[in-house]
Amino acid sequence: MADKKPLKNDKKEKPAKAAKKAKEEKKTDSKPLIEVRDLKEYFYLSNGLFRSKPLKAVDGVSFSIKKGETLGLVGESGCGKTTVGRTLLHLYKPTGGEILFEGKPIKTREDIKNYRRKATMVFQDPYSSLNPRMTVSDIIGEPLDVHKLYSSKGDRMERILELMGYVGLNSEHAARYAHEFSGGQRQRIGIARALAVNPDFIVCDEPVSALDVSIQAQVVNMFDELQEKLGLTYLFIAHDLLVVRHISDRIAVMYLGRMVELAPAAEIYDKPLHPYSKSLLSAVPVPDPKIARNNKRIVLSGDIPSPVNAPSGCPFRTRCKYATDKCAESMPEFKEVSTGHFVACHRLAEIN
Q1: Cβ neighbours for 143, distance < 8 A, ≥ 6 positions apart
Q2: How far apart are CA 156 and CA 20, in angstroms?
Q3: Which of 101, 150, 185, 263 fits 268 for a cystine, CB–CB 3.0-4.6 Å?
Q4: How far apart are CA 336 and CA 344, in angstroms?
Q5: What does DSSP say about strands 201-205 and 119-122: parallel, antiparallel, or unpaired?
């Protein structure tokens, strides 16, 4: 009897690639967890006696994030990224527009209270976002106290230690104070606090910008691991485009309170369509010297205008070499130019 040939073990063939593909298919099939429709956030500044002028920090932004997905939000300082994140969690009351969570609008106080048990935030500065008078266990346990999420002190402590384990802290750290830790460890405490209510959605407001480069990768990888383990959905706000590319499924580009481009991460890096996106991505360092030498840096003229006195029409026109009279007359529509790729530009067809 002839020997049987060993069967090919298909399971061993690129398991990481297969897992990633399955994860992407799951995101594609899922419904939006968060929907933002025409969101506006204006801050009114005094302009003389009984007069005020609006500072349009966010001016008509729309997007959605599917369950288990990470949407990266990028742009220059002052473009409104952080304001979007804070308004999304109702830390600022929206001036206009609509925010929906699992298809339901967030409007009443009861809606906001319930929403904050499902949506939390990791703040930018791990030095100022933690109370120096509270121990680590009290900082992480505060959301548990606010929402009454434990039945006994033992249950509370057990949950705190579980959360600390998620972020790489051990039980010995529980009785210590925030000032005794490094920046990376403090940010881990902040992440553990955000996870305390067992959220579905987390706004990450530049969570690694205040950390050393050597620590940034550890924290970003931890966000990835937590998303995989707990099924989290992120809005990841950052100015470091390499970090955003690593963690994001899709990327949105903001300029002066408005969204100018939104597309899958790989697509927006390989083929940006808006002039502002092209300029931002031309500044991303490339590790290959040959490719780096061939890349042309697109330098923008002038500074970003003040949102108090924003230009008429397209907000980017004052720094855009392609701008025409039409750009000054009307705001370009934020429209889908290919599947999942949205751009706001009057001259899109001419410059690409």
Answers
A1: 120, 149, 193, 196, 197
A2: 35
A3: 263
A4: 9
A5: parallel
| CA gap 46, 53 in Å, rounded | 6
Which of 290, 293, 295, 344 has the alpha carbon at shortest distance from 316?
344
d(Cα 274, Cα 296) in Å, to the nearest integer? 16
10 Cβ partners below 8 Å, 6+ apart?
none
- Tens place of pLDDT per residue across the chain (352 aa): 444 444 444 444 444 444 455 555 555 557 899 999 999 999 988 877 778 888 999 999 999 999 999 999 999 888 999 999 999 999 999 999 999 999 999 999 999 999 999 999 999 888 888 999 999 999 999 999 999 999 999 999 999 999 999 999 999 999 999 899 998 999 999 999 999 999 999 999 999 888 888 888 899 999 999 999 999 999 999 988 888 988 999 999 999 999 999 999 999 998 999 999 999 988 877 766 776 667 777 878 777 888 888 889 999 999 998 999 999 999 999 999 999 999 999 999 888 8
Q: Strand 70-74 and strand 201-205: pairing?
A: unpaired
| Single-letter code of the amino acid located at 159 | R
Alpha-carbon separation of residue 254 from 70, 239, 307 (angstroms): 16, 11, 13
Residue with structure tokens 């070499």? 321
Question: Using an 8 Å Cβ cutoff, are 253 and 277 in contact?
Answer: yes
Distance, in Å, from the CA atom of 347 to the CA atom of 352, rounded to the nearest integer, reads 9
pTM of the model: 0.87
Radius of gyration of the chain (CA): 23
